[in-house]
Amino acid sequence: MSTKLEMKDYATVVRERHSVRHYDAAATISREELKEMLAEASLAPSSSNTQMWRFLVIDDPEAKQTLLPIANNQKQVVEAAATIAVLGDLNGYRELGRINDMAVKAGYMPEDFAKQFTENAVKLYAALPPERLRNIVQTDGGLVSMQLMLSAKARGYDTVPMGGFNPEKLIEAFSIPDHLVPIMLIAVGKAATPGRLTVRLPIDDITSWNDMKKG
Ligand SMILES: Cc1cc2nc3c(=O)[nH]c(=O)nc-3n(C[C@H](O)[C@H](O)[C@H](O)COP(=O)(O)O)c2cc1C
Question: In this structure, which CATH number among 3.40.50.2300, 3.40.109.10, 2.40.50.140, 3.20.20.150 belongs to the domain 4-194?
């Protein structure tokens, strides 16, 4: 891991992250550092710790050109060092056995508990209506995506999340198997132009306490 001392603090990261749409096309990010960011992102919480997110990293110039029309010709996908397709794995819960075995080996979970937990959870996920499972992988995919963007910002990079792409064409062009659902694309790179500033609704307008009727 690169030294944490070089990273921006949370207060700065969260205030200075803005969606950046113009990147320095000459600036690259090593695969090692991209993997560090993905590893930090994957510290995000997930349903039963199933981690049903998968990443397709598009960092090759030819692959970026393939992605361009699929991403509605948003040129950040060719200018940024990489674009990461965050995918939700509808079969991902099948990894729970391995995940819980790792937790046992790390001393975080008693063996009996792990066995029972895995058995119950796998049964539960396997029986879920497809729409419910899809919602779960999309929710968890949003969490990992946000964490990836914050990790990038902490390291001095910028990002833009993108829902503006054709999922069917993405699946076809990049050989994405049926059980993986595209959630969003995230371009990451060195900003050439800062992101536009945006505003947020006042917290008092969007927050209720204890009961929505009482305001
Ligand atoms: C799910 C999602 C999809 C988005 N899709 C796009 C997109 O396709 N292209 C784009 O330029 N920005 C996209 N954005 C970025 C938003 O426009 C941006 O987050 C919003 O305007 C707030 O600005 P900020 O990110 O700079 O705070 C998307 C954001 C989210 C969360």
Answer: 3.40.109.10
